Amino acid sequence: MASVRQLPSGRWQLRVHTGRDPLTGTKTWATRTVDATGKRDAQRQASAWEVKLRDQNAPHPRGTFGDLAQQWMAVKERRWPPNTLQEHRRIVARNLAPLHDVDVAKITTHTLDVLYAGLAARGGACTHRTCPPASCPEHGPRCRRRKCERPSCPHKGACADWSPCDNQPCRHSAPLSAARVHRIHTVLRSALGQAVKWGWIRRNPADHAEPGEILEEEVEPPADVDVVQLLAEAEQIDTRLALFLQLAIVTGARRGALCALRWKHLDLNPATASARFTRVIVIGPDGTTNPDGSPRTSRPVDRPASRTKRSGRKVALDPYVVAALTAHHDLQAERAAAAAAVLPLDAYVFSDDVLGEHPWRPDSTSRKYRHLRWWVKGLSESRLHDLRHFMATQLLGAGVDPKVVAQRGGWSKVATMLDRYAHALPVNDRAAADVLGQMLTGDG
After folding, report:
1. Separation between Cα atoms, residue 18 and residue 45, nearest integer Å
2. Strands lying side by side in the sheet with 3-6
3. What is the largest CA-CA distance in the chain?
4. Which of 196, 360, 403, 409 could form a disulfide with 350 if both were Cys (CB 3.0 to 4.6 A apart)?
5. DSSP assignment, residue 87?
6. What pairing do the DSSP bridges indicate for beta strands 3-6 and 12-20?
7. 64 Cβ partners below 8 Å, 6+ apart?
């Protein structure tokens, strides 16, 4: 199906049909310009080029992208953390579903660019669903009291017939953020890179694909007044949650590291009070199975902290937090003694059982924070992770050495932290402007 035509310059353009796009189904063509003595010579070159392209683009007998993804994750699952494995499975099953039945050899850079554009436009969850129950105006979103009456749905009963679409992404899907598209691109590029190593394809088409540009927004941590109100309200509702938030503010630790904190990781001596974050709780498959034999994919797993998060670092604690931790330890020890047991040294600091054997789930701490924020009226929107930003901006704004802040928060590079929190240094920037002004005016 090769065709030729002579250009006004006298050269000949060759045009060869290369198949159909696996996503859109439209025909694709390859063109090139050559020198030829006549039409017959140009046709001969076009036929030879067509045979060469056919050999290069022939489907590999190994299988489709779905086969590749399955084998790739089976090989890598021993090296990945449980939450990484769960996230990769979710991306392959949901966001990369259009590529499951496509031959790996037929995936091109153009195919991936079209896929990324579609994900950015409508690649999220289906928004065609019933309205969620409205928050109880008296007891909050988690109220389950029968006497409380929640506001009715404003759609006059039509929402009862709505349900999410079976095939996703669908026409009701929400757009995906640029960061999420980049995450999908990373997974796809790694899978296709493994196909290159295995000899399925000659080159990785994702190397030159363009998932889009990520525009990082300036970090806006909670205000000082909001944090004080949150801690005061948490003290009234749940002292354990208040202690959890205090440690998040003082240490800047992530929620998974706080959930994995054990009493043996704490030094409560007032002179040398500190905490070590050597472990982290993640949610993912832990190798166990459900009663029906299916793998459990949403279990808290205790694993070592990664090197990029400065595993084993020590963070000094202030006397106020040490006093709160001591009181919390005494309370846990009393509960264990009441059950005719002794609190183990390796018990989790934040646990709901008597002996502290099972830690809090990281996602449950975020839900508790959202409920607490809703309960305190007049607060701005914030997340539990924003308390980490609060710690960094407060210390940098107070003039603390950036190296100390990076060590405390577990940032592997000081430059990375400064790039993210450069706006938290207004006082230092004003001092620099005053120094240069004095030099120019001769007042120095």
Report:
1. 16
2. 3-6, 12-20, 27-34
3. 99
4. 360
5. H
6. antiparallel
7. 100, 101, 102, 103, 104
Q: Is the dihedral of CA 37, 42, 45, 49 positive or negative?
A: positive
- 382-402, pLDDT tens digit by residue? 899 999 999 988 888 888 888
pLDDT at 444: 56
Residues in contact with 335: Cβ distance below 8 Å, sequence separation at least 6, in sequence order? 354
Residue type, 142: R
CATH superfamily for 65-129+164-208 is Tyrosine recombinase, N-terminal domain (1.10.150.130)
* Architecture category of domain 229-381 in CATH: Orthogonal Bundle (1.10)
In which residue are the tokens 């009226």 written? 377
Using CA atoms, how far apart are residues 147 and 140, in angstroms rounded to an integer?
A: 14
Written in H, E and C, the secondary structure of 161-186 is HCCCCCCCCCCCECCCCHHHHHHHHH
Domain boundaries, the chain: 3-56, 65-129+164-208, 229-381
Q: 406, 413 in Cβ contact below 8 A?
A: yes
Sheet strands side by side (includes 313-316): 266-267, 274-277, 313-316
Report yes or no: 28 and 19 within 8 Å, Cβ to Cβ: yes
**Partners of residue 34 on adjacent β-strands:** 12
What is the rounded CA–CA span in Å between residue 78 and residue 93? Answer: 19
- Do 240 and 372 touch, CB atoms closer than 8 A? no
Report how far Cα 39 is from the mean position of its chain's Cα atoms: 57
pTM of the predicted protein model: 0.70
**Cα–Cα distances in Å, from 301 out to 76, 257, 279, 361?**
18, 12, 10, 9
354-373 per-position pLDDT tens digit: 999 999 999 999 999 999 98
Kindly calculate the radius of gyration of the chain based on its CA atoms and give it in whole angstroms: 29
As given in the structure block, the two tokens for residue 269 are 């001596």
